[in-house]
Amino acid sequence: MAEDLAGGANQEPPANPAVAPVAGADPVTAPSSRQTQKEATRNRVIDAARELFDTQGYQGTTIREIARHAGVSVGSVFTTFASKGEILSQVMEDRLDGLYAELDRVVPNLRGSTSDRLRSIFAIHFSFEARRTRLFLAHIAAAYDWTLPPSARPMGRNPRLIGIIRECIAKGIADGDVCPAVEPQEAVDLLMAAYVWIYRMAALDGADAQEMTAAMDRQIGLITDGLGPR
Length: 230
What we know:
0% strand; single chain; mainly alpha
């Protein structure tokens, strides 16, 4: 009896038929495989869209072209993204991670007047966007597409840039460099309007980052003169 009990203690417990795996199925790796495939499709769509938006613009690019360029079906694109505007938003969000990492490193160390700090912030933006100016123009164009779904994040809905500028204006108010009566969001709107408008120089005249930065420097001077203490 003791030997039977001892031997039984070392035996594998009988399989429970209620939880036995289905033949041919791998419950551990199957979901991971599907997720990997979905991620691969997403990356192909983003890569294809980035190139097409950069060469054909936002309005000139269709979902069908993105799918064909990515080597996936149109249905696969819509399974991953709700609209063309959402694809562009993701393209820009992925791309801008590097820019905002640089700004997070640089902005806390900026010195000088509010005008000086703003000039530095926008100079970094122009330098970065000059690498793919037409892609950024597509990003701007999407901001005026009234059919965009709420899930899309076109130019103007980027909380990172807006937050950076607001912090700069708030610091100017705290330092006595900006009139305390100034509404920070109104100042942000003025600066963003100037920033976007200057890109017409790239669209119409092929202006480079240096030329656009110089124009923005002048605009910042005019704006900050108006924001100064009274």
